Target: CG9723-PA
Amino acid sequence: MSYLQLIVLLVLLSFKPASAGRPQTDTVYLAVGTSIDITANSYGNNVLRTFCYPGKPRSLFSLFETVELVLSIANDDYSEYGGRTPEEVLEHYTEKRSLFSFTLFSQKRQNIQLSPFEQQCIGVSSKQPYNISLKHAQLDIWRLLQLSLGIAVFWSAGRLAKNSLFYYMAGMVLGICASLLVIIAVTSKLFPRRPMMYGVLIGGWTIGLYILKQLSDNIRVILITYREYVLWYLVITGLISFLVCYRIGPPRNPRSQNIIMWVLQAVGSAIVYFSSWHTSACVVLLVLVCSAHYCPNSVLQYVRSFYKRRFPPKRRLLTQEEYYEQAVTETARSLAELRDYVNSPNCRQWSVISALRDPMRFASFANGAPHLFDEEIEDYSRTIEDSLEGADEEEAFDFLQSSMYYRPTGRLRNAQRTSSSPASYPRRAPSHGRQLGNNNVNARNDYEDDDDDDEFMD
Model:
């Protein structure tokens, strides 16, 4: 028998089931919160038990819902088969039991997440006792965080593409995770460019991906058992990646930055898409985020102004105390700014003085004198009292309390109430100019009294 005939015979035998007997099967439809204990059986792997979740209608309230099938078994002496229906699971079971059946990326999972909206079935074949339970979470916090992270990456992709710190951190993380693939890529340059070598390189990349997958599945055990080796690996590969990124330098070309931005936006979109089993809602959300991100500012301003016109905000009126405090504060600030401008080189003092009727008053104001004379304040107070004659006492009282420069002259009866105003109203002390005026009046009266005494002595 030739080698070719032997190979054909082995291939044909690979499709023949290892066990001639038909497997014993049963199907159980699980509800949320169900837990089933399966006892040991003497038939071994010839028994297939299928557990199905029927699914439910889609709803926006189930956007972050998670359904998880948990398999609790003592060892790894079991096999899993997946499918949409029990018939599909049985078909996979039959195919996998053939001779020379080997899948490079096969794995045994004890926690299997199922779609809440579609029917899914999991077949388990084992002679060991085990437990099957179906857990449910209406709001999965991790999926919500994944959605938020995806939107944040998409929205800030333009700034991250121009950030040097993000460039070095992303380069180091990529170098640490893909160091094995980098070694394969560098080694491939040493092989001659022949058709046979391309097959070797493709096989090398497949083995590299397989090793990365096994590392990700057993990352916890590796971190606990080989902590020192993992630490040195991170330090060496991270340092080499940083030096390579430092040698290349952050991208300065706008087109390169645009490419990085588009890649980050694609990554963010993928994170958002896979953050929920409700994929149609995720697609709609991505369209809204993309439209809002690339929407012109003029359209956003129009929408904002239209919303304010349609739903105007409620304005809160100021109280008497707030109105008075704001008047005092803003007047003092404006006068200080005017005085600073007058004394600054930007002000043409001589041109201003030539256009004023009283230049001396302007000069005294620039040197710190009050902007109002006592006579002007008294005239203002008398004018207010004349205008309030015959008015309601409460309205007159409120108006006088909110007047910043009013001083009672005794002519208006309501003005006498200002002396007994509530404690919440700030006390208005007389201005510096009024104090100087009173001092001058007292000095003049003392001088006249001295003259009268001299005349009496004579």
In short: Residues 432-457 form the longest helix (26 residues).
